[in-house]
């Protein structure tokens, strides 16, 4: 297999309630799962191919819980990437050149019956993990934004996070609320639902702790 590693930031938004039962091995809030994710690679490589500064995103939907499968995924890749970088990003995003089920990306791909041809687009990401804020766009295909959860009585920002020492996506995240839309092959609309911000540090063997 090709040795690879990426280190950067992720903003993700799904249709679950703010706590997202999936993070605790419980069934999704409404019985199904829909999500978008935006990833910025600050430093990375795929074999000899450098990935520093590139971005990728995807929309994904399952009719039930993720582990029940039958999902569909729409990958979106930074259109500034050259041919070798595009191959690398798509391979990482779809679980290729990765130990079986070693990363959340590999799990998501394995649980999808359909992975659409990638869309190449301008991807802009503003991700502020400490402030729990995000503004993300991938051409006309995906858009997402995130904000802090607000106390319903005082209106003040409420800070919450999830710690997963053995997590295959992150070790600790920041939780907020998100709004996202996806058009095209995997269309969805998320309104004031679970969102998270996390550091991404992965290689083909899994999360680097």
In brief:
Helix content is 9%, strand content 48%. It has helices spanning 83-93, 104-110; strands spanning 4-14, 33-46, 49-50, 55-62, 71-78, 112-115, 119-121, 123-128, 133-138, 142-147, 149-150, 157-158, 173-182, 188-203, 206-207.
- What structural category do the secondary elements indicate? mainly beta
Cα-to-Cα separation, first versus last residue:
21 Å
* Uncertain runs: none
Q: Determine Rg (CA atoms, Å).
A: 16 Å
Count the strands? Answer: 15
State the order of secondary-structure elements, H for helix, E for strand. Answer: EEEEEHHEEEEEEEEEE
**Beta content:** over 45%
Tell me which oligomeric state these chains represent.
single chain
* Helix proportion: under 10%
Largest sheet: 13 strands, mixed
Counting H and I runs of at least 4 residues, what is the number of helices? 2
Mean pLDDT: 98
Please tell me what the overall shape is: globular
Spell out the blueprint of helices and strands.
Layout: E1 4-14, E2 33-46, E3 49-50, E4 55-62, E5 71-78, H1 83-93, H2 104-110, E6 112-115, E7 119-121, E8 123-128, E9 133-138, E10 142-147, E11 149-150, E12 157-158, E13 173-182, E14 188-203, E15 206-207
Parallel strand pairs: 5-6, 5-7
Antiparallel strand pairs: 1-2, 1-14, 2-3, 2-4, 4-5, 8-9, 9-10, 10-13, 11-12, 13-14, 14-15
């Amino acid at each position: 297999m090709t040795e690879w590693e990426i280190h950067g930031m992720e903003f993700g938004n799904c249709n679950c309630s703010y706590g997202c039962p999936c993070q605790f091995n419980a069934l999704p809030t409404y019985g199904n799962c829909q999500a978008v994710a935006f990833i910025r690679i600050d430093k990375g490589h795929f074999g000899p191919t450098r990935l520093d500064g590139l971005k990728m995103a995807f929309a994904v939907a399952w009719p039930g819980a993720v582990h029940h499968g039958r999902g569909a995924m729409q990958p979106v890749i930074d259109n500034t990437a050259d041919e070798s970088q595009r191959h690398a990003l798509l391979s990482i995003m779809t679980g290729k050149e990765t130990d079986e089920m070693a990363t959340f990306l590999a799990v998501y791909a394995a649980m999808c019956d359909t992975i659409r041809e990638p869309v190449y687009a301008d991807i802009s990401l503003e991700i502020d993990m400490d402030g729990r804020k995000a503004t993300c766009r991938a051409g006309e295909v995906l858009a997402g934004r995130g904000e802090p959860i607000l106390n319903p009585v005082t209106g003040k920002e409420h800070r919450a996070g999830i710690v997963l020492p053995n997590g295959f996506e992150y070790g600790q995240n920041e939780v907020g609320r998100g709004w996202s839309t996806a058009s095209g092959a995997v269309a969805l609309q998320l309104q004031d639902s679970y969102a998270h911000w996390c550091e991404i540090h992965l290689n083909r063997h899994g999360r680097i702790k």
